Sequence to fold (159 residues):
Amino acid sequence: MEKLESMRRQITVAIFSIFILFLIDIFTKNLAFLNLQLNTPLPVNNFINLTLVYNYGAAFSFLSDQGGWQRYFFIAASLIIIFILFVLLIKTENYNKTSLILIISGALGNLYDRISYGYVIDFIELHYDNFYWPIFNFADITISIGTVILLINIIFEKK
Fold:
């Protein structure tokens, strides 16, 4: 009975954490949408601009110029991936929970945009000299950090 209660508590904390990170993503995207001009950089410092863009593709604008079918493909793929990761989150009893929470929350944030608008709102632009990293958002940060943590855990996990 204690184990079941502990598992319920862990799942509740995980869902709450996912929800909070999701809300932060939506909040930051709304701030960008309301305060930035589309495709107009607002310099923060020598390395960061805030630049509102609409990403119709995936990471690095992959498939962004495909005429619209990719929206439904990415929605379906996101739903499947989120479902699989949530099942893993419930079943895992180890340190991978944090990485799964981060990845799920980011995937939900970008999925929300894709369903609501047909594109993902991106606004963080890193650059140095003439090198510009593709513009991204808070959800992309949580997905990236979660993926790195997950990969490190997998690589160094004791068998």
